[in-house]
Structures are given as C-alpha cells and as structure tokens.
Design a protein that fits this description.
It is built from nine helices and seven strands, in the order αααβαβααββαβααββ. Helices cover about 35% and strands about 20% of the residues. It has one domain: Rossmann fold (3-Layer(aba) Sandwich). The model has no long low-confidence stretch (mean pLDDT about 95). A seven-stranded mixed sheet has the order 3-2-1-4-5-7-6, with helices on both faces. It has about 290 residues and is α/β, with parallel strands linked by helices.
Length: about 290
C-alpha cells in the first residue's frame, strides 16, 4: 500500500526545483512559529537542562554559552543569563531576529522567574528530570536579575549592536576559536546535512573539558505515516523529497550521532534515548559530550 504522506512529501520536494518556488515556501515558513517563541517552553527547556546536570552530578561551565539553531528566538539566552551565564553566542545558519518580539519574550520569561514558576513538562523535550520544582538554588537573586533585564532590553532596543552579552556569529564554523564553555542545541542536529562537520567545528570553538548537550529528534517529521519508515526511503527518492528546501533531515539514529561525536574528539558522558511506548522505535535522545 502506498504511503500517502510520502507521495505528498515527494510532490512538495519536486515543487522546490521550480525556479522561484522557494521564495513562496520561505514566506510560509516565516509564518510558522518556532517552539523557542513560546516563553514557557524556553523557560522550561533551559531549567530542565540545568536540573538534568544537577541530577546527573555533572558540573558544566555555562559562562560562555553557544546555542546552535535558535530559530530566531533568544529565549534560551535570556534564561541562561538569569541563571548565571556571562556571554551568549548565537550559532545560527541565518539570523532572523524580530527585536520587538524578543523584548516581549524577555518580559514574559522574567515574570516566570519572579513568580518562581515550576518547570513545565513538555513531551517534545527529550531531557527528562525527576524534580520539576523551581530550582531556586541555581537562579540568580532578584536584584541581579533586574540589572540584567535592563541591560538586555537596552541591547535589544539597539538591535544588539555593540552588545557585550549576546553575540550573533555569522558563518561560525569557519571563525577563529571563540572559547566556548558550553554548547546547547535542541531539534537541530537531525536537520544538518553534515553532522560530522558541525561536531568537528564545535571542537575548535570549545575550551578543553567544555561540555555540550544535544537534544535530537529521530521521528519521521511527518514524511511517513509509520514512525521510522523515513529511513527505508531510497537515496534518490529522498533527494527529491528534500529537493531545494532550506532545511534537511539527515536520518541518522542515536548510534550514528554518538559515533560521529566520539570520532570528533569528544568523550560521551551521557546518552539517553526515548522510545515510542513500549516499542523499539526511537522518538528522540539526549547526548552529552565532553571536549578532550
């Protein structure tokens, strides 16, 4: 039986080969809201990340944080600053930041901190912890947060020109070493065409013993009806499906990412894979690597 979702994916991919088609597809993509635009999601994602390391008894240095693929949202950056980060680097393919939206996002996130909002559970966050209460011990005092909020708002009003806090790094893969102490990504590494190239570039930018955490999705992203069937699609059909779209799906599994990370000069400290129900089908996973 023909999978209708694959047929639709092939048609959509074929359309991208038509000159000018990507212009209209990009307009549609811009109207799609990135999960990072949700203040509660960003807040819960970052605090879950912090609590995860506490529960695993691992002590990262978050002072110089780099995020890969923030999708135009600085939500993780805001949360990181309010929990002690000193400098944030945006490793993004193409920065499309709406600064007024980011000011509003910052204000919403700051309210969660002021109210000591408990961490909310989101199914699509693959980082799982046992304690979802507000982690007061790892959040900056109110007075420090207030000062940081003023600085961040001023930076956003100035569109980050001359910012000492948030650095947008164009073509980060080929820049000089940035002395990063921690790298974070969520739902990004499954979309890059060459994960190996990214992991090797990260090693150049990271300090010795610096840590990175990648939250990776392994599901079919709606390309197939049956979970995992996207890995059975032939190379040429897959080529048509993704055509000239501005995003990709590399189809690597958990083992594939672990193998590439280990071969890029990292020690694997933790790897947690999530499965669909009681099946062997992987939904997503978390990998923590240490630069050697």
């Amino acid at each position: 039986m023909i999978d209708r979702k694959i047929v639709v994916a092939v048609i959509k991919g074929a359309i991208t080969f038509i000159p000018g088609a990507n212009y209209f597809l990009n307009i549609k993509r811009k109207k799609t809201r990135h999960s990072g635009a949700n203040a509660l999601f960003s807040y819960s994602l970052w605090l879950t990340n912090l609590v995860y390391f506490v529960e695993q008894k691992i002590q990262p240095d978050f002072s110089r944080l780099a995020e890969i693929g923030n999708g135009g949202s600085l939500g993780i950056a805001f949360c990181a600053f309010l929990t002690g980060t000193k400098k944030y680097f945006s490793f993004e393919y193409r920065d499309n930041i709406d600064f007024q939206e980011q000011i509003e996002l910052l204000e919403k996130i700051s309210l969660f901190f002021d109210k000591s909002e408990p961490i909310h559970y989101f199914e699509k966050i693959n980082i799982k912890v046992t304690d979802y209460s507000f982690p007061e011990q790892i959040v900056l005092p109110k007075e420090q947060r207030t000062k940081l909020l003023q600085l961040l708002k001023l930076d956003l009003q100035n569109k980050l020109v001359g910012s000492e806090l948030i650095i947008l790094v164009n073509n980060w893969e080929v820049q000089n070493p940035l002395n990063i102490s921690f790298v974070f990504s969520r739902a990004v590494m499954e979309h890059v065409k060459s994960p190996l190239a990214i992991y090797k570039a990260l090693k150049i930018h990271m300090n010795e013993d610096a840590l990175m955490l990648h939250d990776i999705e392994f599901h079919s992203h709606g390309i197939t009806s049956m979970h995992g069937d996207h890995r059975k699609i032939s190379f040429w059909l897959w080529f048509i499906i993704f055509g000239k779209r501005p995003f990709y799906l590399n189809r690597l599994n958990m083992f594939g990412h672990i193998h590439l990370i280990a071969n890029s000069g990292f020690l694997i400290l933790k790897s947690d894979e999530r499965f669909i129900g009681n099946s062997h089908l992987s939904f997503g996973g978390v990998i923590v690597g240490k630069r050697q």
